[in-house]
């Protein structure tokens, strides 16, 4: 996502009616033994004139996939609403992918 405005902003929440178990905004972290883990964060800065790419190596979302008839299959589109501290809400579609099926550069 790109912040094309003249002021810094922050992504503060992500919601979706299609995610019954909730959504957590997380950031990839490393511990002092060089072990990777995910830590929940309350917001992610989006500086003016800059962009933010979500990936498993930086900032991403942890979601609970629905069970039963509503379960997701690879390639399905899931609607999300991104909420920012200062800007309007933005509706986006995410593509469901199995872990490891994409290469993030």
How would you sum up this structure in a few lines?
The chain has strands at residues 9-15, 23-30, 36-40, 44-46, 59-63, 77-84, 90-95. By secondary structure, the chain is mostly beta strands.
Q: Helix proportion of residues, in percent?
A: under 10%
What characteristic shape results from the CA principal axes?
globular
What class do helices, strands and sheet pairing give? Answer: mainly beta
Q: Strand-residue fraction?
A: 35-45%
Task: Explain what you see.
This protein has 105 residues and is an all-beta fold. The protein is 0% helix and 40% strand. It is built from no helices and seven strands. The protein has strands at residues 9-15, 23-30, 36-40, 44-46, 59-63, 77-84, 90-95. It has a four-stranded antiparallel sheet, with no helix packed on it. Strand 2 and strand 3 form a beta hairpin. The protein is globular and about 45 Å long.
